[in-house]
Structure formats: structure tokens, C-alpha cells
Specification:
Length: 111
Amino acid sequence: MKDPQFYKLNKHNEVVPCSVAEWHKWIITLPKERTVGQEKIGDFIISTVFLGADNNLFGQTLEYFETMVFHHDYDHASPIFPVERYETYRQALYGHALMVEKVKQYINKRK
């Protein structure tokens, strides 16, 4: 398992390492900076955020960003759509847009 490390985004949305104190301050004082995208479509909320840590503790890839889909009735992710994770801000933006389209297609099929 990797040692825990903390990260923040610089002004160019690049992931940069930081101390736990810097990370905590950044997360608390700039919560909107963590949000890559958030959309409400029908009964679903698609949320893509910067995590501030690499969530792939055992793998070779780096995962700093995450997209989750929530149903408005639940406190947890929708089991219909898998959690997606990304290494870069650009990948997260693209992944968010893809998930928005997946949710729209799902809703249209149910009509």
C-alpha cells in the first residue's frame, strides 16, 4: 500500500502535492475549487470532484478525481452507474460530460 499523500489544485487545475495542513486549509476554505462539475438531470445528480488524495491505494494509476451519480432519494451513489475515477482535471471534465450523457440516455430509455 502507498503512503498517504495529500494534494491540491494550482491555478491551472494541475494536481500538486502539499502537506496535510495545506490540504486541510485548501479543502475547508475553497470547497468550490474541488467541484469539477455538478448537474441535476431528472432524479439524478452527477457530481465530479477533486478528492485531494490518490484513491487508488493499491494500483498503478493515479486517481485524484471522482464522478458519482446520486439518486435524489438516496444518500449514496446510484447502483445503476459505476463510480469513475481520473488522474487529471481534463480527464475529469471529459468523464463528467460522458456520465451526463449516460444518465440522459438512461432516462430517455425509461420513457
